[in-house]
Write a structure and sequence with these properties.
With 590 residues, the protein is mainly α. The chain contains 19 helices and 14 strands. Helix 14 runs antiparallel to helix 15. Belongs to the SusD family.
């Protein structure tokens, strides 16, 4: 959107100066024309785009009712407590995503001119694949732009962002208006259609010529050629399955309450159908990974990963981090030489039901306030370190969190101590040791999309479209999905989950249950911030903690939230609205 994006691209491509995109190259430097004879250089355009994908663990949980942080200067803490403005915006995607889209558009305008290989057949397949990746990634970045910046103008118009499908050179008109939300959604769908047309579902080797998908047989009938381009060497690049998964994300966003408007044509049925197209690929509810609850610490599975292979739970992930302990050093309690950054709230702890499936507020759950962690949903122990948690770290340590516990793990004892009485356990491996005198590091991966997310998206959309047990044109319902997810978690397995059976007969109760299951299953994975907004749920819930040294019955307030209603939608960057008068700001933002 801005001229400086052009210069950023030029610099990132190691060109000789800011003007090299538009003037002849100097000796020993490359310009865009040279991508035609240098396939690696051409592919570098896409490599830069992959590097800019927003991180999955962005810790926006700090700005929700699920967590706070002991990092007093953290941008999300400041956001939650009153400093969120159009000039100070931790969720800003404007520069990052439009910069990536500029790369993509420049690549797409030149991809057909590149000599991708010496032989004609692989050259055509490489071109096809990389254009498919580019279209898919353009849709991806448009999704992140809409999630962060779409909203209603002061006049009540539902707007998205400017749509860029051509590279903007130095002569382009940068003062472009925002397109409608509907136009942006349709542009995403169009790009995803092309991605699915050009890409295989997954990058896997085939064993015979007959296995080449029909749409690629017009280019080659040789499995060796197909495997060279579309085989396992391309794993973790954007593929058809990822395109379908992003279609499900986009449709769920568009169908949500925050974006309901006569101009928006996406329905809950669309969102359910999009999610089902992904889930059907793995056999529907029978494909739910049995170990997906603990995807982050399935140690033998993680340690065995190689050649870009995914665990059953994962649709897309980042590259493996080998010999790493960054998550643990940031989030372990201080007694384990961690910084305790992520502090789960009592609000979140209270959202975990009893093991028999009833909420803790329901007398049939037999919740004991004096023993609050007994007979709870097993996920509580897997995701959160609470007072008395055992088996933590390589030393199998018991953690005590009361302010008078006499340990550094107690509430507010030191800067790295918890503020709530809880530490995050999810995302961490317990076989990592952060002791500087005897450090043990392990392999980790960060997801980009999990199947569990898509299951939950289907459940939400299907319930809204057809009710708890309606199936549309599919073979499973919202109820079927939630039943599988709770069974996997170990909830209601001894009594037939009667609370779920109650919800099965009531769309509104099922909605609340689905939203709560999403909250639990995806906690600390940077969904809650966005879910609250697209649902238009309460944003200013005060974050609470529990100090067992004071009282097991009474929690305490940790951090007040100061969000305003207009903050369901993020702002257009203030600097952009100053420079370009065609950019309309979202209502409420200055």
């Amino acid at each position: 959107m801005k001229k400086k994006i052009l210069f950023f691209i030029a610099g990132a491509l190691i060109l000789s100066s800011c003007d090299d995109l538009f003037t002849p190259a100097k000796e020993n430097f490359k310009d865009v024309d040279q991508m035609y004879t240098d396939a690696s250089y051409a592919q570098g355009f896409l490599v830069n785009v992959y590097r800019s994908i927003p991180t999955y663990y962005d810790n926006s949980d700090y700005a929700t009712d699920d967590a706070v942080t002991n990092q007093k200067s953290h941008s999300f803490l400041k956001m939650a407590t009153g400093t969120w403005t159009a000039s100070n915006n931790p969720i800003n995607q404007w520069q990052n995503s439009f910069g990536a889209i500029q790369y993509i558009n420049l690549f797409l305008e030149n991809a057909d001119k590149v000599k991708w290989a010496e032989d004609e057949e692989p050259a055509k397949l490489f071109c096809m694949r990389m254009k498919g990746e580019a279209y898919g990634m353009r849709a991806l970045y448009m999704y992140y732009l809409l999630r962060a910046h779409a909203g209603f103008s002061a006049e009540g118009q539902l707007l998205g962002v400017p749509i860029l499908t051509e590279f903007q050179d130095s002569q382009a008109d940068f003062n472009m208006p925002r397109a409608t939300f509907e136009a942006c959604i349709q542009q995403i769908y169009d790009d995803l259609d092309l991605a699915e047309e050009y890409l295989p579902w997954e990058y896997e080797n085939i064993n015979s010529d007959n296995e080449i998908p029909a749409r690629f047989q017009t280019i080659t009938k040789k499995k060796e050629v197909y495997n060279r381009v579309m085989g396992h060497y391309a794993r973790q690049l954007f593929n058809g399955l990822i395109a379908k998964s992003f279609r499900a994300r986009v449709a769920l966003l568009a169908a949500s309450p925050a974006f309901q408007d006569p101009s928006n044509t996406t329905t809950w049925e669309d969102a359910a159908d999009a999610a089902a197209s992904v889930l059907d690929y793995i056999g529907g509810t029978n494909g739910l990974a049995s170990n997906g609850v603990t995807y982050y610490c399935n140690t033998s599975e993680i340690d065995a990963l190689k050649e870009g292979i995914n665990p059953k739970e994962i649709i897309w992930r980042q590259n493996l981090e080998t010999n790493s302990n960054s998550q643990e050093s940031q989030n372990f309690p201080p007694s384990l030489f961690g910084s305790g950054y992520m502090n789960p709230t009592q609000n979140l702890v209270d959202a975990f039901p009893m093991a028999n499936g009833y909420p803790i507020s329901d007398a049939r759950g037999y919740y004991d306030i004096e023993s609050p962690y007994v007979n709870r949903d097993p996920r509580l122990d897997k995701y959160i370190i609470y007072n008395g948690s055992t088996g933590i770290g390589t030393g199998q340590k018991t953690i005590v969190t009361g302010s008078k516990s006499g340990t550094d793990d107690g509430i507010n004892v030191k800067e790295t101590s918890t503020r709530t009485g809880y530490y995050m356990k999810k995302r961490l491996r317990m076989d990592v040791n952060c002791d500087p005198s005897y450090t043990t590091k392990k392999t980790h991966y960060t997801p980009r999309i999990r199947y569990t997310e898509i299951f939950l998206s289907y459940a939400e959309a299907a319930n809204e479209a057809w009710g708890p047990t309606g199936k549309g044109n599919h073979t499973y319902s919202a109820y079927d999905v939630i039943k599988k997810i709770r069974e996997r978690a170990g909830v209601g397995t001894d009594n037939g989950d009667p609370y779920l059976e109650e919800c099965k007969t009531n769309k509104d109760k099922m909605r609340e249950l689905i939203r709560n299951e999403r909250r639990l299953e995806l906690c600390f994975e940077s969904f809650r911030f966005w879910d609250l907004r697209r649902w238009k749920n309460k944003l200013d819930e005060t974050a609470r903690g529990l100090d067992v040294s004071v009282s097991m019955k009474n929690g305490f307030e940790v951090e007040e939230r100061t969000f305003k209603d207009y903050m369901y939608y993020g702002p257009i960057p203030y600097s952009e609205t100053l420079k370009y008068n065609n950019l309309i700001q979202n209502k409420g933002w200055m």
